[in-house]
Request: fold
Amino acid sequence: MYKTLKPGFLVLVLLVVAMLGACSTKSEPSVTPAAASSEGKEGADQPLTKVKIQLKWVPQAQFAGIYAAKEKGFFADEGIDAEIIPGGPDIVIEQQVVNGAADVGITGVDSLLVSRDNGLPLVSLAQISQKSSYRLIAKKSTGIHDPAHMKGKKVSTWFGSQQFQVLAFMEKNGLDPKKDIELVKQGFTMDQFFNDQVDVATATIYNEYHVVLESGTKESDLDVFNIEDAGVGMLEDTLIAKKDWVDSNKELVVKVTRAVLKGWNYAIDNQNETVDIVMKNVTDGSTTREHQVTMLEEIAKLIRPEGFTEKQVGSFVDESFTRTADIALKYGLIKKAANLDEALEKSIYEEAVKDVTK
Reply:
């Protein structure tokens, strides 16, 4: 339940490459004949420009900033009618954006790099999460109190493009992931961990980790290994768009990006209210408010970590991107070194935050 996106991107992205040649129509913004909010910058009588935003998973607090931007009128203030499109296990974000089904999307940086490596003309507009959310968890009863104790054990993680942080963690700690551990494909629930089918499981700090705690397991009963602290974290959620759409609609793209970043700052500063907004959008029975409260608390720490100002939300930290690209190349996720200068549209972010003072 309450699952974030872990589908196997690599095969699906290759399918997108094949489709790209047959689907080269440029996506243009449409104008919706609806009035902007009376508080909007564009004025009450101006039409709103339709922009479709594709999420990487189902509605949840992982995307709280986007929902807050719509609810609080930040998109309307920019003259935008934002349509937020939920994701799911069969939705490939890059395919949606390349084919024009969405104008912008949220995906992982690793998936963006794979897409670009396969020829898809996608770029990042802003980096939403600044740190890896990944943790490796083990029950203390297994005796796995440090990485060395993982030797000979079953370690589960998500496959596709999602396992590479775990592989890098093993190598960083002197373990050969091909010989020293048994790598097991992890499902969309934590049942393998609960049923002792694996010794070590992967969990995001904002989701699966708290699913484990909500099941009745105490933090004191777990040994937790932080991928980010080990120095091998890969960047996750990033805001993407098709390059030619960005080049043809730069003013609009800046406005979309600005609204999203304002939404995230609002969500982080007003978490109780924002959870109420999120709960209006979730599928009935799919989650609880308590779980979404915890998710937003943890997501906020990844998006605006300690030491970050409001103006730095969405910024591109070169060291983090270089590390992510290096890991992707080392493990064959991409075939050639990533050109980050071309992959990151830094000028869009810089223009979007000009009016942010802090």
